[in-house]
Amino acid sequence: MDAYHNLAMSYDRLTNDVDYQAVVDFYKQILAKEGLQPRTAVDLACGTGSVALLLAKEGLRVTAVDMSQEMLCIASQKAQSLDNPPLFVCQRLERLSLPRGVDLAVCALDSMDYITDPADCEKVIQRVYRVLNPGGCFIFDVNTPEKLRAMDGQVFLDEDEDVYCVWRGEFDENTNICAYGMDLFQRQGSVWHRFFEEHREYAYSALQLTEYLKSAGFTAIEVFADRKMTAPDPGEQRIYIKARKGRME
Fold this sequence. Notes:
Elements: H1 11-14, H2 20-34, E1 40-44, H3 50-57, E2 61-66, H4 69-78, E3 87-90, E4 102-107, H5 118-131, E5 132-143, H6 145-150, E6 155-159, E7 163-172, E8 177-188, E9 191-202, H7 206-216, E10 219-224, E11 238-244
Parallel strand pairs: 1-2, 1-4, 2-3, 4-5
Antiparallel strand pairs: 5-11, 6-7, 7-8, 8-9, 10-11
Helix pairs in contact: 2-3, 5-7
């Protein structure tokens, strides 16, 4: 069973501390620095659509892609009141294909780390390059290897009145993957239902991802600290990477 199958209905409640607006605002800072005003965008691994909806509210025509039908169902429900709702597409990123090019591609909240085969990660980056219009921009973030290694043996807990989630991280140096088993308890009426999901993230380095981007044809590659227009400091927990498909002079 895919990660997020059972988590979908509780995802927004368990991540209510995530500042999605700050993420989109940082995208806007990067785009302003690049002198870009995109009209179309694709939100990769869009989840419940929080970033896609904010981009749509900015006036962009958005396609939102995710492999989880359950997450897309929640996203679609959230978008019903918008005058300019995203187009939601159920698709694996390794098979990314859009009917027309876009000016901007984004992938938020370490979703790229969920591509645990480096060869597949290369394919995804190549696919993103293909769907971008000339001069288009790709922005994404990843958890750093330092963060994922530090999660080994750590136990985390999230809860509210109707959801209880506990998970424990394990980092495997041989596979370079951090796996965390998630026990999820969801209350439906007077009954609590228990589910289990395993999530896995590959610890990609900035150098590794930069090489994949160069190989795909991207230029103007920059690595940023977490939502800061500066280079990452040692021990940074999350980094953002920007790349361009050529430049429009």
